[in-house]
Give the backbone structure.
Amino acid sequence: MAFWDYANPTRFLRFVQVVLPWLTGLCLLLFAVGLYMSFFVAPEDYQQGDTVRIMYIHVPAAWLCMMCYSVMTLSSIGTLVWKHPLADVSAKSAAPIGAAFTFMALVTGSLWGKPMWGTYWVWDARLTSVLVLFIMYLGLMTLWRTMEDPIKAGKAAAVLTLVGALNLPIIKFSVDWWNTLHQPASVMRFDGPTIHPDILWPLLVMAVAFTLMFFVLHLMAMRNEILRRRVRALRMRAASAAQPGPAGAAQPAE
Amino acid sequence: MTGWAMALFQRDLRLSVRVGGSALVGVLFFLAVVTVIPFGVGPDLNLLARIGPAILWIGALLATLLGLDRLFQADRDDGTLDLMLMAGRPLELVVLIKCLAHWTATGLPLVVAAPVLGIFLNLDPVSMAAVTATLLVGTPALTLIGAIGASLTVSLRRGGLLLAVLVVPLAIPVLIFGVSSADAAIRDPVPFLTPFLILCALSLIAAVVGPIASATALRFASD
Amino acid sequence: MFQNLSFTLSQGTALVVTGANGIGKSSLLRTLAGLVALAGGMIRYESGEDDRPAHEHAHYFGHQDSVKPALSVLENLEFWQSFTAPTAAAGFAGEPRKPMEALELLGIGHTAHLPAAYLSAGQKRRLSLSRLLVTARPIWLMDEPTSALDKNSEALLLSLMNGHLEAGGLIVTATHTELALTKIQTLHLEAAQPAEQALEEGFL
Amino acid sequence: MDLGPHAGFILASYGLCLLTVLVLIAWVRLDKVAQEKALNDLADQGIKRARPEDGSTQVS
């Protein structure tokens, strides 16, 4: 089963080596197409004018910050239940990327809100729950930083990640459950998207491009994390190794 | 600055930035406090704008207090403090430099984060700048006053809460003048400079009193 | 804490403090180190610098290693080298060593750039000991210096201590084991009458 | 291309996103360089992995 094949870090690194160039190329291509479409193909909104173009990065970033947390949640289950050796590597390296996507979603939302709502920030359910997600990401990153032993840190962080996953449905349904300024979902709906194809297509292309970017960065960060653990293990061995060479000075003078 | 002082400053900065250090936890706590307040007082943006400077100041005070309990304790736990007492360097200066390093690692990030958090509280640019300026000159005073509490509670296992109780009364003047000068910048007729200069003076006084008091406390704590 | 305690130590001599557990060997060393205030009496170091108290002429090598796990081994040592003020004394010819040299001498040179967190207990102990070599101070106060050290390191420690004595330094050490030092004076601590032991008894 | 009265907001959001992505890429790159340097430093000291790099060995 492929899932367990990649439990071997060395094998995983080889897999990354093969896959990464293709993913990166595809990601760049999609970004080129998506950015072109969002500026030149997509029409301006009859109400919002050109500001609607912020949507093509805002919405993918918002999706991705939730998907990234879902990846971390799955990885946490992997750490606690299946004891997969790469699970906490995956969770740890996803956190900064997730925090960055959340930051992007917050910033673009804020810059979109100013011309539309007249303020950079309101404390409504959607915005607040995403801000809470941002704090969760930062908290998890800090937890990993404060604990020296990666195995222990991984387990602690996995527990926290699972508890924090409660926030995901709150973010998703906040626009339906509470009355907010934020507009309700228009793409991810059970009865199909409600927006015009000229807007939908650039959005989908950008969303796929963002997703690929997440996987590229995530694989690279996981590779770094594996190397970091390797360095740690080797350093421990280096410390316990005897003094190399005939250290004459180390002999006590009788 | 002489060599030993630089070495101490660098060491403390490195320790708080590296794995196990607490450099950015304070900012995160600051962010958490500011996020929680609108849940308590309600999301009314006008109200938040009015009490925004106060929220930021209280957040900064709590974040500073929270990070202070390890200021001397970590060094006491592994015997470093004993060696520092014997090193032949003026202990008051040692304390001052440790406070400076601690402020650079934990207080300065609060100041940098303040304008961003101001957006959440609907502050206008003028009051944002005013709050940031007052925090810049005020938070060193909080760290220096807090150092007194940190040295008094250095030998206690759970000194954190006691530290906060001891320090908060001493920190009240800083809070008063910090918030009032930030407010003065928003409401026109009140001069900004008067409370601001008092705040600066408080920081300078704390830079003298704090190290002397906590050095004395540390000497008593060694036996 | 102590009664009728008085001793004089001349250059190049080691004072070995013996006595039962809990008798106050460690407290005596901490008092000499200036970490415990004297209730009465005085400590004087005659050949030292006039403007510095006796304890600033001393290195204290106690039970705790004062090693920061987040710093590298070399960073740990270099900090103590620049932070501890060297002190001179008439007739003391000890020369400070370079940090790397001291680490090599103690057999942990290969760990210099590793975080100290990776060191074993014995290696941390040796790192702590290297502190005494990089700043010259005429008095070494050593509390159970051989604990957590293996046979080789113990022999090395003794040669370092003898070297310090030859250079005209003083050593005061509390120990349970026999130490093969060149010039030894022994101080044996004994329990006083229980009623006289504690200051608090005065309130009875 | 005319982005209307709110061009500043649009460009700022795209710019800040680009900046964030660049920071992420820089973090990943620099981290890799740092870890590889640490591995090389250790290899110079003669501390290497026991298992060869081909990955043919199976972790039991």
About this structure: Chain A touches chain C at residues 148, 235-236, 238-241, 243-244, 247, 249-250, 252-254 (CB under 8 Å). DSSP finds eight helices and no strands in chain A. Helices of chain A lie at 2-5, 9-41, 55-82, 87-117, 125-146, 150-164, 167-177, 197-240.
